[in-house]
Specification:
Layout (H helix, E strand, L loop, with lengths): L2 E10 L2 E10 L16 H32 L8 E10 L4 E10 L2
Antiparallel strand pairs: 1-2, 3-4
Length: 106
């Protein structure tokens, strides 16, 4: 279970009172039932963004390289449109997401 601890001291009549406040991500009645459901959202979102950025940059480079090579070999005229499909898979959870689109040269 992830928790955050904060303390603050207040002076009252010559003595210090220390206050401890515990913040839990889940209500107390759900903590035992969902221990595995807790994750760090910032790390999760950051890793997704990093993966998608890497995917986008590398995919664009490969597409550009393949199209330029096909143009140089005379296989393309330079005004074609290509159907494109991209698939993201996460084997650990059985996710397979497909995105369809089109790439135009002119």
């Amino acid at each position: 279970m992830r928790r955050r601890e904060f303390s603050a001291a207040r002076r009252h009549d010559g003595c210090f009172i220390t206050l401890w406040v515990w913040f839990f991500r889940l209500p107390p009645h759900e903590v035992g039932a969902a221990k595995e459901a807790i994750m760090d959202e910032d790390i999760f979102n950051g890793s997704i963004r990093k993966f998608l950025k890497t995917l986008g940059v590398s995919a664009q480079r490969e597409i550009e390289k393949a199209v330029r090579q096909a143009l140089a070999e005379g296989k393309l005229k330079g005004n074609e449109r290509f159907p494109a499909t991209g698939t993201i898979t996460l084997a650990g959870i059985g996710l397979s997401h497909e995105v369809k689109g089109e790439i135009e040269l002119e």
